[in-house]
Amino acid sequence: MNIFFIGMGYMGSERLRAAINLKKKYKIKIVGFYDNKIKSIKIKNKIFKSIQNLKGDFFNKNKIDICIISVPHNLTYKYSKICLKNSQKISLLVEKPLGINLTETKKIVDLKNKNQKIFVGLNYRFFDGISKMLQDIKIKKFGKINSLLINFGHGHNPSMKKSWKLNKNFAGGGVIIDPGIHILNLLQLFCSKIKIKYLNKIKNFWKTGIEEEVLITMSSKEIPIINISISILRWRSTFEIQGNGIKGYWRVNGRDRSYGSQIYYTGKRWGWLSGRKQKSTEKKYIQKKTKNVFQDELSSIIQVLQKKKAKILPCTDLEALKTMSLIKRLYEY
What we know:
Elements: E1 2-6, H1 10-21, H2 23-26, E2 29-34, E3 40-43, E4 46-49, H3 56-61, E5 66-69, H4 76-86, E6 91-95, H5 102-111, E7 117-121, H6 128-138, E8 145-153, H7 168-171, H8 180-187, E9 195-202, E10 213-219, E11 225-231, E12 238-245, E13 248-253, E14 263-268, E15 283-286, H9 293-305, E16 315-316, H10 317-332
Helix pairs in contact: 1-9, 4-5, 5-10
């Protein structure tokens, strides 16, 4: 399994580290990387150097099975096109959101042939708590779900104003598209025909023209009340998913790193009738400390490409296209 990387910033280096960790398991050969700003990187005492030019003949000389693209959103189409046009059997793992808007996402999807696959880095499904939550929803553990509340906040840092992430031309928008795509993609795993009921957004802090905080109310056949709050104005990182059903409820708190370890709680309706306090009747699942979602996601992608059964399926380009369609509707609301 030959893997090549385009973009070696924070996400690119995380992806490279994941590939190194899986090297023996899947007989991975790391072909190298291309980045026009970063010339070399050292990971696990090994130095990787950027190739000088990314041209068609490079793909002819090197049999690449997977190219992992980790670049600003506005460059995703450019590099996806280079890969897909110069290698007839290549597969891509592209960082979300697969282009800066729905139109560009469609253009990327249309580039691939029948022998090529595109996966998108929407990996929240690989967190232990979220994975168990999705399983419990699937088996209807909570009965008919009445409501869902998602609260996702981050504060970034003082230098963010100069970052491409707050520039609409480079990022495609603000918190609705990133990190909002993570939440919306998760939602679409168990909700269909989502209707937008209300949206409020503010742009009052960084003042770069993108939305910095949003409050969204939606509805679907599966869940009649869905409230989502996403912000980059929270000075303490926050990640919470709270769901309430006829039979019981659940809570997911944390997302590793500054958000804290992920903990998944489930509780039964009127558990306190057993003679204990409601909180003491809850079941708690704490994510294992060695969790690496990038590694689990790449492992799943390789399993799919090798036509093996993957416990959790990775996000495909068509799935991301559906989420980008919802994002377009939110921006037009």
